[in-house]
Design goal:
Elements (H helix, E strand, L loop, with lengths): L9 E7 L3 E7 L32 H18 L5 E5 L10 H15 L4 E6 L7 H9 L2 E5 L5 H7 L9 H8 L7 E5 L1 E5 L2 E4 L3 H14 L3 E5 L10 E3 L2 H13 L4 E3 L1
Parallel strand pairs: 2-3, 3-4, 4-5, 5-6, 6-9, 9-11
Antiparallel strand pairs: 1-2, 7-8, 7-10
Amino acid sequence: MQTVLFHSTIFGPIHSRRLGTSLGVNLMPSDGKVCTFDCLYCEAGFNAQGPGHTGLPSRQEVRRLLEEKLAGMHEAGDPLDVITFSGNGEPTLHPDFDSIIDDTLALRDMYYPDARVSVLSNSTCLDRPSVVGALRRVDNNILKLDSAIDSTIKLLDRPTRQSFTAAGVIGQLSQFGQDCIIQTMILRGTHDGHMIDNTTPAEIEALIRAYLAIGPSEVMLYSIDRKTPAEHLVKVPREELELIAGQVRAAGIKVLVS
């Protein structure tokens, strides 16, 4: 089984194809995975590997480790474009997520005032006012919407909450409008005998309707870039991504293909 991708709270910096030189923050365990989705394509593996034994890092530990790293990079003259919250699961699940965002913004202003703070979220905790407030304060509020059709979401993203629906999350995403970026993984393949394909005309039409309802500043379309825990997924070539992007742009929505 493919296991967790990140083995520390602060990792990198790495080069992100979408964000530039990125210093990562993992608010989940360093030896396990905790997530409200169990996506077929997740680089950190399936949830079945378990949450590990280290637990979630405390707010104080995150601040200490992040400041040590930023101070060292600043002293060495290393560049930094963005501080990115991602990791072994859903970062907004951390009980101190909003306070950690405040700490991060303060440290960013101290050491790298031109760097952006980004959060990569699967959009499942938008019913929590503290999470919504924290996401409004970051520079890049990047929220997942892989499909606007419930059956595809259940096959591709596999939400752990049975109450999660496309209509529900689209309504929650719409509260951000221009204060969010929507990120959509485009792929096709099979898993456990089921065909998964969010490139069909019906899927793209539903996504465009959802994007129009949300009104984000930008949509990011991308496909598989690394090994996935589900073995029979197919990367959509860039040429096809660009064709899909053209349909989205025709609806008046800004799109980045990566």
